[in-house]
Amino acid sequence: MKKTLLTLAFGLTATISMAQTNYEVRWANHPEDAKHYDTERLRKEFAIEKVFSPGEVNWVYSMYDRFLIGGAEPVNSPIRLTSIAPLHTDKPQDKQRLLDNRELGIINIGGKGTVTIDGKAYELGFQEALYVGRADDKNNKDIVLSSADAAHPAKFYMNSACAHQSYPTKKVTLKEANNIKAGSLKESNDRVIHQMIIDGVAGVRTCQLQMGITELKEGSVWNTMPAHTHLRRMETYLYYNVPEGQKILHVMGEPQETRPIWLNNEQAVISPQWSIHCAAGTSNYTFIWGMAGENLIYTDMQVVKIPTLK
Q1: Cα separations (Å) of 51 from 158, 188, 236?
Q2: Is 30 annotated as a binding residue?
Q3: Mind telling me which CDD domains this protein's record contains (predicted)?
């Protein structure tokens, strides 16, 4: 395993591991085809069962808006983010630079960690976010992830979308986010939506990417009700804070042709533009939503009335 030295904050140095990076490509699916998928095929196309693994980086490259969904869990040494084969061009540097033509959102759901970009360190605590703009000739060429404590490693959940220009790197905390109370306990969906990486929120500028966190209150299980679709955006959910022994029943599909996918803690799911995306848990839970497409207007959606769902 190739290793290099990195100078961290406060003059400290660390050995960076060239961690094993795993990836797979998911092709886009027509809704008429998806109607005929059995459980195994549905999970193969849309469920992401392995997001985090110690000392590794895992990516899924979806052809829905060419979206990248990933997780990195540095443990004993920092790890560097590199590009993956489907993103390579004939430029030699593209085999190392993840963010040529891309922007990146990172939300930490583990212990304290640090994201170091071109030598500048950004500390991320639990449920803190970082937006990283497209790489150019001067910025965002080198991204290194590290954990403060190997016994309680950081877990960096990542979404990346195509970007037409470079915007500044920006950290966002829950206090700085746009925090919206939604739903009610009576309807079993009392929750708080934290808009974090949203164009115009907390000084963040983005090209396509939107990310945030939704927390369900104790006693509530339903998220994203009434359900909706985004014909101009795709979306992904990462479910976490799911208690041991509990599960999430994620519902996807066209509004009148829905399908269930059962998910465990720290598993994710891809939601195509034509699909609703909602869930009920056997307990309350938290999830990260990430979106990309041609439109940055958060409220641009096609709401589906609950009685019409099938």
Answers
A1: 10, 28, 13
A2: no
A3: cupin_KduI_C, cupin_KduI_N
